[in-house]
C-alpha cells in the first residue's frame, strides 16, 4: 500500500496526526472503514460520491473520507467529513 505525494500533503493539512499516526490510520481506513454501501445517511453517501474519482473506492473512517485506487490500493487523497454530517453518522 502506498500513499501518493498529494495524499501525504493533504493528510498533513487536514489532520492533526503525526507521521506515524497518519501511516496507521490510512491502513486502518482501508480495512475497517465504511464503504459507500455501508453508510445509512443518504447525504453522506452523496457527499462521498461527489469526492470519488474514476476507478477509485471511498472509505469513511474516523470522520475522514479516504479515496483509494481500486486496483493498487494507493491512497489518492483524504477529506474531512463536514461537521454538518457528524451528528447523523453517530446515530
Return the average pLDDT rounded to an integer.
Answer: 87
User: Mind summarizing the main beta sheet?
Assistant: 4 strands, mixed
User: Which series of helices and strands comes N to C?
Assistant: EHHHEEEH
Question: How many domains?
Answer: 1
Helix content: 40-55%
**Span from first to last CA?**
32 Å
Q: Which architecture name does CATH use?
A: 2-Layer Sandwich
CATH topology: YaeB-like fold
- The CATH C-level name is Alpha Beta
Strand-residue fraction? 15-25%
Write the SSE topology.
Elements: E1 2-3, H1 5-14, H2 19-32, H3 42-51, E2 56-61, E3 64-69, E4 74-80, H4 83-90
Parallel strand pairs: 1-4
Antiparallel strand pairs: 2-3, 3-4
Quick tags:
globular, 4 strands, alpha+beta, 91 residues, YaeB-like fold
Amino acid at each position: 500500500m502506498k500513499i501518493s505525494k498529494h495524499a501525504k500533503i493533504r493528510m498533513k493539512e487536514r489532520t492533526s496526526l503525526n507521521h506515524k499516526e497518519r501511516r496507521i490510520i490510512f491502513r486502518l481506513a482501508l480495512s475497517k472503514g465504511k464503504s459507500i454501501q455501508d453508510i445509512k445517511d443518504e447525504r453522506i453517501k452523496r457527499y462521498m460520491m461527489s469526492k470519488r474519482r474514476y476507478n477509485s473506492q471511498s472509505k469513511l473512517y474516523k470522520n475522514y473520507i479516504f479515496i483509494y485506487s481500486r486496483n493498487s490500493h494507493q491512497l489518492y487523497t483524504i477529506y474531512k467529513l463536514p461537521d454538518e454530517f457528524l451528528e447523523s453518522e453517530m446515530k
